[in-house]
Amino acid sequence: MASISRSGSAHWEGGGKDGTGHVSTQSGVLKEAPYGFNARFGDGRGTNPEELIAAAHAGCFTMALAFQLAGANLTATRMDTSAKVGMDQVEGGWKIARVALTLKAKVPGCDDATFQKLAATAKANCPVSKVLNAEITLEAVLES
In which domain, by residue range, is 13 found? Predict the structure, then answer.
């Protein structure tokens, strides 16, 4: 059985509200990207775990859909996906409760029923969808 491993890291100094940190990825695409309380719970500068999860989910789902389309002998000329992560305050802290995926795609030769079926399969089976304990919705629009 094949196995893949990827890594990321975080550094933090200070308290929860007044501290600051940075995150990095193995690939170096993110290198010491700043994050902190204001970037996570307000509109402060820097990144936060939820937007990184949103970007990862959008990317994972879109790539999964490209493979689903290829399996149906279809190729998208364009797919644009956004993911909006929603958190709710629960007893003991916060929980990622939902992710809303929104997709607009152009796939020559594909009818909407096929597109919706393949998009739903990609949503259910992309690795990021599988790891999230959240409600995941999908609005998929096939453009002509």
Answer: 8-41
Distance of CA 62 to the CA centre of its chain: 9
Is 128:61 a contact under the CB 8 Å cutoff? yes
Please indicate, yes or no, whether residues 73 and 137 belong to a single structural domain of this protein.
Answer: yes
d(CA 88, CA 91): 10
Alpha-carbon gap, residue 61 to 57, rounded angstroms = 6
pTM: 0.93
Q: Please write the tens of the pLDDT for every residue from 5-53.
A: 999 999 999 999 999 999 999 999 999 999 999 999 888 889 999 999 9
Whether 135 and 97 have beta carbons less than 8 Å apart is answered as yes
Instruction: Let me know if residue 51 belongs to a domain.
Output: no
Phi, psi for 71 (deg, rounded to 5):
-65, -20
Q: How far apart are CA 36 and CA 44, in angstroms?
A: 8
Instruction: Kindly state whether residues 62 and 127 are assigned to the same domain.
Output: yes
CB contact at 8 A, 136 and 102: no
